Amino acid sequence: MSDFLSRRDLFRQGGLIALGLVAPPWLSTIARADVLKLSRGGKVDPDNVLVVCQFSGGNDGLNTVIPWANRRYYELRPNLGIPEAQILKLDNALGLHPALAGLKTLYDEKKVAIIQGVGYPKPNRSHFKSMEIWQSASPEGDLKFGWVGRHFDAEIRENPLNPVVALGLSTEKPRALNADHAGIPCFASLADIQSMVGDPDAERMLRQIQGAEARSGSNERVVQQANKTALDAMSALRDKLKTFTPKQTYGNDAFGRGFQQIAQLIACSPQTRVIYFSAGGFDTHARQADQHQRLLQGFGDAMLAFQREMEALGKANKVVTMVFSEFGRRSYENASGGTDHGAAAPMMFVGGSVKGGVHGPIPDLSDLQDGDLKFSIDFRQAYATALDDWMGGDSGVVLGQKFSHLDVLKG
């Protein structure tokens, strides 16, 4: 069975876009583990939450975190370079794009850690390949499944998981969530969760899955109980989602809608520990200025509203958002008013538990590699930091080797 099924494929109508049915299906594997844990009197405890925010398309890092004091920046970008007077200055060398006023507010509160020059050896400029590398955390291609999926594969061997311990918000299931045993559901929106439970077609599908599992040799009673547990978990989440009213105002763009739904999930689902969200539009080959302005403003405003929402919920120090894109853009502008695929770019950690400021050396614009910024920090160092220091996992197992941590989290 494919690990990505759409409700359109299943029911030939709108609604649920992606339900992560992997082999074995999450409705049985994860729920069965939860049943076993509950039978031993265990509970799924709330803990730190990691939000992964993906800028799909290749974000222009140089116009996001701007080396305004380096004249070479303006030589490379005579038209796309952001005028110094407009830049939201962080220090005597760097500043943020003027559209990121919301993020600058959080930076001034020491809640934003900017990691400079993030990438990997032998960078690939293909969207598909580079995203595959980031999501599998395997530049050499020798690790199966996604890095988040592998984390929960390791977790499920030690601690049975709740069916909603991790969720994706995306129109397509990210490779990062694919796993061998742990199934992670992915939805286009929370409306899909709300419409799933109680839908006769959905329930019929679940019964068919249950029957297929039983026929494949699984213990029928255990599988039935597992599926019931999964349905109960989704039903409980659906009911709780209806009770939450956000206190902040979010924009009507991909980031505004996304972070409002993430806030809703965190408020209503204390068992959820990882939420993976992606927003596209960052492939700015032409007429970049206006498009990048809109995207960054949407992100910055949504990030500020989300952090304020977490503060209102009393979770400001329990939620960290990690922001990345599959690659940056070329150091120089092109003839179409845009930038082409590049390599290294900044990442960010945002939240009340981060060590705010700029981490890592400023990219050297006089020492480029085929027109690209050279990386100084391996993205797997950021993953290792999140896995070990925030999620309590084992990055050596998940990433296949140990990577040094970044000093971006408190405690």
Write out key terms for the chains shown.
three-stranded antiparallel beta sheet; Alkaline Phosphatase, subunit A; disordered N terminus; nine-stranded mixed beta sheet; globular; 411 residues; alpha/beta
CATH architecture: 3-Layer(aba) Sandwich
CATH topology: Alkaline Phosphatase, subunit A
Question: Which residues form runs of ≥5 with pLDDT under 50?
Answer: 1-46, 209-219
Specify the structural class: alpha/beta
What's the helix-strand series? HHEEHEEHEHHEEHHHHEHEEEEHH
CATH class: Alpha Beta
Main sheet properties: 9 strands, mixed
Count of helical segments?
A: 13
Determine the N-to-C terminus distance.
43 Å
Number of strands: 12
Strand percent estimate: 5-15%
**Structural domain tally:** 1
Q: What is the radius of gyration?
A: 21 Å
In short:
By secondary structure, the chain is an alpha/beta fold.
What this model shows, in words?
The chain is 38% helix and 12% strand. With 411 residues, it is an alpha/beta fold. It has one domain (7-399): 3-Layer(aba) Sandwich (Alkaline Phosphatase, subunit A). The radius of gyration is 21 Å and the shape is globular. A hairpin with a 5-residue loop joins strand 3 (88-89) and strand 4. Mean pLDDT is 84; it is low at 1-46 and 209-219. The termini are far apart. The strands form two sheets. Strands 1, 5, 6, 7, 8, 9, 10, 11 and 12 form a nine-stranded mixed beta sheet that branches. The chain has a three-stranded antiparallel beta sheet with strand order 2-4-3, with no helix packed on it. Helix 4 crosses helix 11, helix 8 (200-215) packs antiparallel against helix 9 (220-241) and helix 10 packs parallel to helix 11.
